[in-house]
Amino acid sequence: MMKRILMSRLLHSQTSTARLLSGRSSLKDSWAESVVWHQGDLLSPDSLKDSLIGVNSVISCVGGFGSNSYMYKINGTANINAVKAAKEQGVKRFVFVSAADFGLVNYLLRGYYEGKRATEEELMTELPHGGVILRPGFIHGTRQVGSIKLPLSVIGAPLEMILKHAKVLTAIPLVGPLLIPPVHVTSVAKVAVSAATDPTFPHGIIDVYSILQHSQQKSA
Ligand SMILES: NC(=O)c1ccc[n+]([C@@H]2O[C@H](COP(=O)([O-])OP(=O)(O)OC[C@H]3O[C@@H](n4cnc5c(N)ncnc54)[C@H](OP(=O)(O)O)[C@@H]3O)[C@@H](O)[C@H]2O)c1
User: Fold this and answer.
1) Which residue, of 143, 170, 191, 209, has the greatest Cβ tally within 10 A?
2) What sequence ranges are listed for the domain NAD(P)-binding (predicted)?
3) 23 pocket-lining for ligand 1 (C-beta < 6 Å)
4) How many whole angstroms separate alpha carbon 164 and alpha carbon 182?
5) Is residue 129 in contact with ligand 1, taking CB distance under 6 Å?
6) What domains are there in the chain, each with its CATH number?
């Protein structure tokens, strides 16, 4: 869901040539022709190197669900490979779309969260001043599943409106983390593009409340 919004936003910001590392180049959107496509698999790090030559900033929205070992591989190993390759090629900024802490859910989706946190650690070690970690909760927008468009914002938008003013509730033991406000996919994409293109954007962890705050600012 996020890849297409991110790419259209990046092209809109007109900072420089946008490159997309992807398993496929099948997107039909009008902007897709302005993108330099690199086909690659983050689980085969050698397939990345050429795509990173001369690159200043990387945004990774790579993630996925499945068995715990698969989730660790996609959210952890694949992204860790991307961080290592970026460091080797002298990339200055690396923006990683991670995920908020959901308490009990973290346990049920161990591979997902352990993978995300392992990537965060790698990023903070390899690029301590160039790593930006976005930690959204549930991301809403329109998700394309085959030919069907799922309007996740029907639920996500009202919840975002209510919960963004109720940070205090997230401190309630056990259920608190489930009350983290959802955030629209365009907000996350806007902040990711700002983080990648604005050298004054702060490095480190950006939680969902900061994502909401940064997304209301004018740039990008
Ligand atoms: N959706 C949510 O509610 C939510 C909440 C918190 C955090 N997040 C995180 O936000 C990010 C974007 O979410 P989303 O909903 O847009 O996810 P998504 O639609 O499942 O997209 C996952 C992305 O990972 C890429 N990918 C998977 N395996 C890869 C590999 N081996 N090599 C290269 N690329 C690979 C896919 O590329 P291809 O398209 O080329 O296959 C796709 O662009 C994810 O990291 C997710 O964990 C999502």
Assistant:
1) 191
2) 6-140
3) yes
4) 8
5) no
6) 2-137+184-215 (3.40.50.720)
